[in-house]
């Protein structure tokens, strides 16, 4: 079977296991804190809804600016490893300030220092990984990228479970120390990783994608919808069910499917086309958002997670590769552009629910509308491409 052959090839590549470990431990550190960040600001520091949005928005704005600026120049650097290593150290400093915050200003300062450099980590790690696998096994580059992203998701899943249990034993302070430990592991592993640098005169692979601003807008809309869910679902779950740790269990239910769905999604995208798979994933996301608006049953929230897991797998796996293939000769910029899109989407998505009074399931009508608009755009692109393909076939036959 091709998948077994590809997995064996992947594992046999020098450095592949270390890259897997880097993404895995980074995922653990991120997952420990992610579902409780807004809850920490709400319950432990006592910030209002508007202040929580401001903290997230300012830190993400700084993240967006740093990510795209450094991504633009990173391909001129011989060694990209220094960027995520420096970012990990800065994030740990920010987390130390954040965990000792006593009000809005100190929380804003700490989270900004903890979040702003983190865009360099994912973008540059995947830029490094694309160079690494292109030089050693160019035929499995896309699947290697997906498995690395899946490794992050598995680590994220482990972090969610750890975070929920750490919270029960050591409250939010333990959760924040767990997040810091994840960055420390990332820094140690990066120090021991031998980076593959660009070979002068090497030709990029041929299976690129044409640049499409319209498709980037569609991906921005999908990412905006996911950002709304990422911040507000944890607050809605807290209001409905009253226990912060429930969100960690809900997210872990989603994350456990991502390894399977990213692998399947990668092979389906290669066979049917990335845009068709992204369209299908958007339909699943729309079904999940509409379910959130109509149900207050905890079992239903868990049951809908596999659908949303497929959407997330495609959005952060197939879509990431799709954007990178638009810039095959600039791996650092292509990976950073994808992170820029997702972080810009988060920045926009955090503000949209302010138009809905309070924290209620009605917030999820906003991501529903965003996904619906994205589906219209992707559908129009697919329809136009199908028409162009038919005309070319008729011309060839004539």
TrEMBL record:
Principal place where this protein is found? Answer: membrane
InterPro entries in the cross-refs: MFS, MFS_trans_sf
Q: What is this entry's stated membrane topology?
A: Multi-pass membrane protein
Asked if the Swiss-Prot or TrEMBL record annotates the protein with the keyword Transmembrane, the reply is yes
Q: Does the keyword Transmembrane apply?
A: yes
Native source organism of the sequence: Paenibacillus glycinis
Name of this chain's protein: MFS transporter
**Subcellular localization, as worded in the UniProt entry:** Cell membrane
Q: Which UniProt keywords apply?
A: Cell membrane, Membrane, Sugar transport, Transmembrane, Transmembrane helix, Transport
* Top-rank taxon, per record: Bacteria
Bilayer-spanning residue ranges = 20-40, 52-73, 85-101, 107-126, 146-168, 174-193, 213-237, 249-270, 277-294, 300-323, 335-356, 362-383
């Amino acid at each position: 079977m091709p998948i077994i052959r590809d997995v064996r090839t992947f594992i046999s590549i020098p450095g592949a296991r270390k890259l897997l470990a880097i993404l895995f431990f980074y995922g653990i550190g991120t997952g420990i804190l992610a579902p409780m960040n807004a809850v920490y600001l709400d319950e432990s520091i006592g910030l209002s809804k508007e202040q929580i949005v401001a903290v997230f928005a300012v830190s993400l704005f700084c993240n967006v600016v740093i990510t795209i600026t450094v991504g633009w120049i990173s391909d001129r650097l011989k060694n990209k490893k220094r960027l995520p290593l420096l970012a990990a150290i800065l994030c740990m400093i920010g987390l130390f300030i954040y965990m000792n915050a006593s009000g809005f200003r100190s929380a804003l300062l700490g989270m900004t220092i903890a979040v702003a450099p983190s865009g360099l980590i994912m973008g540059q790690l995947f830029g490094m990984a694309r160079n690494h696998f292109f030089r050693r096994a160019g035929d499995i580059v896309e699947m290697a990228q997906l498995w690395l992203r899946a490794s992050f998701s598995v680590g994220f899943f482990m972090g969610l479970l750890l975070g929920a249990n750490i919270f029960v034993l050591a409250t939010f302070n333990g959760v924040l120390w767990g997040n810091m430990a994840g960055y420390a592991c990332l820094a140690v592993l990066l120090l021991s990783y031998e980076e593959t640098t660009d070979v002068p005169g090497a030709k990029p692979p041929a299976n690129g994608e044409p640049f499409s601003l319209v498709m980037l807008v569609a991906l921005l809309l999908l990412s905006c919808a996911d950002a709304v869910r990422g911040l507000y679902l944890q607050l809605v779950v807290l209001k409905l069910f009253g226990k912060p740790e429930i969100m960690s269990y809900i997210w872990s239910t989603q994350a456990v499917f991502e390894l399977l769905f990213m692998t399947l999604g990668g092979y389906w995208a290669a066979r049917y086309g990335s845009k068709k798979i992204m369209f299908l994933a958007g339909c699943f996301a729309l079904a999940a958002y509409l379910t959130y608006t109509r149900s207050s049953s905890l079992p239903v929230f868990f049951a809908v997670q596999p659908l949303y897991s497929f959407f997330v797998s495609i959005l952060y796996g197939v879509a990431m590769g799709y954007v990178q293939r638009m810039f095959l000769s600039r791996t650092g910029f292509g990976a950073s552009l994808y992170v820029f899109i997702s972080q810009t989407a988060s920045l926009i998505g955090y503000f949209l629910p302010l138009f809905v009074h309070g924290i209620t399931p009605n917030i999820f009508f906003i991501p529903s509308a965003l996904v619906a608009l994205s589906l219209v755009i992707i559908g129009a692109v697919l329809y136009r491409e199908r028409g162009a393909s038919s005309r070319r076939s008729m011309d060839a036959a004539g």
